[in-house]
Amino acid sequence: MIPEEVVDISRLQFAVVALYHFIFVPLTLGMTF
Fold it and tell me: Residue 26 CA to chain centroid, in angstroms?
């Protein structure tokens, strides 16, 4: 069984990475064009 802490950490990591891509990628694309 997977401990709850590991699940929370993986969810947090996923949320951070998703937010990073949603914010950072459009910004860099906007700066390029």
Answer: 14
Chain Cα centroid distance, residue 9 = 12
pTM: 0.58
Q: What is the per-residue pLDDT across 1-23, written as a single tens digit (0 to 9) for each?
A: 889 999 999 999 999 999 999 99
CA atoms within 13 A on the CB side of 29: 6
What residue segments make up the domains of the chain, in order of their start? 1-33
Rounded to an integer, what distance in angstroms lies between the CA atom of residue 12 and that of residue 1? 19
Q: HSE of 14 in the Cβ direction (CA atoms, 13 Å)?
A: 6
